[in-house]
């Protein structure tokens, strides 16, 4: 699907760029040109980023995405300690 009509950028291209390490909106905007013309695609670009595990800020260097792909699905179980009466 074409996400950015102005620059002819598809969601596949965005996902491929994220997989190559572009994990911030600014990186995608600079490299692909998304949201640099009319700007109407910004929300959709950010949605594609969220679906792909990119945090969007670039502050973690893709750590969030790496953790999401490496961590097995787990269920957190609360641990209660008995309280002294
Ligand atoms: S649709 Fe992306 S800048 Fe216009």
Would you give an account of this structure?
There is one protein chain. The chain has 85 residues and is mainly alpha-helical. The chain has a domain at 2-59: Orthogonal Bundle (Arc Repressor Mutant, subunit A). Helix content is 41%, strand content 6%. The chain has 4 helices and 2 strands. Strands 1-2 form a two-stranded antiparallel sheet. A hairpin with a 4-residue loop joins strand 1 (2-4) and strand 2 (9-10). The protein is elongated. Bound molecules: FE2/S2 (inorganic) cluster. FE2/S2 (inorganic) cluster binds next to loops.
Write down the CATH class of the domain at 2-59: Mainly Alpha
The separation of the N and C termini measures: 63 Å
Question: What radius of gyration results from the CA coordinates?
Answer: 18 Å
Order of helices and strands: EEHHHH
Global mean pLDDT:
82
Tell me the major beta sheet: 2 strands, antiparallel
CATH topology assignment of the domain at 2-59: Arc Repressor Mutant, subunit A
Widest β-sheet, arrangement of strands: 1-2
Instruction: Give the CATH H-level superfamily of the domain at 2-59.
Output: BFD-like [2Fe-2S]-binding domain
For the record, the CATH architecture of the domain at 2-59 stands as Orthogonal Bundle
In terms of structural class, how would the helical and strand content be classed? mainly alpha
> Which ligands appear in the coordinates?
FE2/S2 (inorganic) cluster
**Unreliable residue stretches:** none
Classify the helix fraction into a percent range: 40-55%
Q: Which term fits the overall shape?
A: elongated
Q: Write down how many β-strands occur, each being a DSSP E stretch of 2 or more residues.
A: 2
Total helices: the number is: 4
Strand percent estimate = 5-15%
